[in-house]
Amino acid sequence: MKISNITTHILSKPLDEPFSFSQGWVTKRSTVIIEIETNEGITGWGESLCHGLQPPEIAASFVNNCFKPLLLGRDPFDVEVLWEEMYNTTRPFGGGAAVNAISGVDIALWDVIGRVLNKPVSKLIGGTFRNEIKPYATGFYRKEGRSYPKAGVEEAKEHLSKGFDAFKLKTGFGVDDDIEYVTAIREAVGKKPKIMLDANCAYNSSQARRLLLELESADIFFFEEPLAPEDMEGYKEIKNLTKTYVAAGENLFGKIGYRHWISRKALDIIQPDLCSSGGFTECKKIAALAQAWNMSVVPHVWGSGIGLAASMQYIASLPSAPLSLNAGEIYLEYDQSDHPFREDLIFNAIQMENGKVNISQNPGIGVEVNRDIIEEYKVDVFK
Ligand SMILES: [Mg+2]
């Protein structure tokens, strides 16, 4: 089997109502979908994560200019060989953006392999530790004209009414603001729901320390990206201050990007993003490193239905650390914020029932892509 074509589809749509997080305003939702065709008529799909403020053209440019010439005519079953070659040829770019782009290609290659073998990807990367996952709701972005913490309290109640019993609050709007906001939401929802926080790197270790200590009674499950990823020493300063787990990973790339964070025990939970930290090939290795240090993996997920479905295949294959009769659950991050095509891009969008989502047993990443939606939202600057 040979790769006969690779197409990048840049999808983008302005939001009717922009929303903000600690680093700025998100005015549109964009992503890079990668389609890999083969000479035997099997097509695979992948996605490279596009964060709220970064242009999707970067990943698409890597794929079109660096990876497509390398991969055409090659066997998709050489997926690890191809990963290493893609990484090797883009090493001078420094890892991050290149690995983000490699991720979408790698996911599409595994989708091809799964479709050829008629197996879900999870069965090809070690098997399924679980057939269903408990999702937690991501949202709580801030919008113009709303009053906070009131709007946050209303959103929390909305997620609970849909069946979620865990959600992640956007923080990083100032320590005092965050303390008032988180306290108000905890008081409104009671003790039972799990609450996570995400500051998107807005603080230094002194500010994060004050926030963690002031919010100790709010019983926060984990605190995501309190600090910038350049500040490993800062993370180590705050990690064992309170019972709240300290988490990060959406801005770390590849096994090399993760190795010291794991080996130096700088985090309680690592959060590789399948669509950005290296795809199935590399994220399985990152998980193996974490397992060797008995560290939990709760992946970061923030994309379209393609990335979400692929991430569920990855999560299915993750052992809990350690295995036990009542091992701590690995959550699925399930973005509930505005997205014009997250669900519509695939025909069989995930459904939550009784607070859980089933992991697809269909071949590959388990989705059929709606090409009409690709055409509707496509912004192809490379035509
Ligand atoms: Mg985050």
Describe the protein's architecture and organization.
The model has no long low-confidence stretch (mean pLDDT 96). With 383 residues, the protein is an alpha/beta fold. The chain contains 12 helices and 14 strands. α5 packs across α6. A hairpin with a 4-residue loop joins β2 (24-38) and β3 (43-48). An 8-stranded parallel beta sheet has the order 11-10-9-8-7-6-5-12. A 3-stranded antiparallel beta sheet has the order 1-2-3. Strands 4-14-13 form a 3-stranded antiparallel beta sheet, with helices on one face. The protein is globular. Bound molecules: magnesium ion. Magnesium ion binds at residues 198, 200, 224-225, 250. Magnesium ion (MG) is lined by residues 198, 200, 224-225, 250.
Summarize the structure.
By secondary structure, the protein is of the alpha/beta class. It has twelve helices and 14 strands. Strand 6, helix 6 and strand 7 form a beta-alpha-beta unit.
Write the layout of secondary structure elements.
Elements: E1 3-21, E2 24-38, E3 43-48, H1 57-71, H2 79-90, H3 96-117, H4 121-124, E4 132-133, E5 135-138, H5 150-161, E6 166-170, H6 175-189, E7 194-198, H7 205-214, E8 220-224, H8 232-239, E9 245-248, H9 254-263, E10 269-270, H10 279-292, E11 296-297, H11 305-316, E12 332-335, E13 352-353, E14 356-358, H12 371-377
Parallel strand pairs: 5-6, 5-12, 6-7, 7-8, 8-9, 9-10, 10-11
Antiparallel strand pairs: 1-2, 2-3, 4-14, 13-14
Helix pairs in contact: 1-2, 1-3, 2-3, 3-10, 5-6, 6-7, 7-8, 9-10
Residues 198, 200, 224-225, 250 line the site of magnesium ion.
Keywords:
single chain, 383 residues, alpha/beta, eight-stranded parallel sheet, three-stranded antiparallel sheet, 12 helices, 14 strands, 20% strand, globular, binds magnesium ion
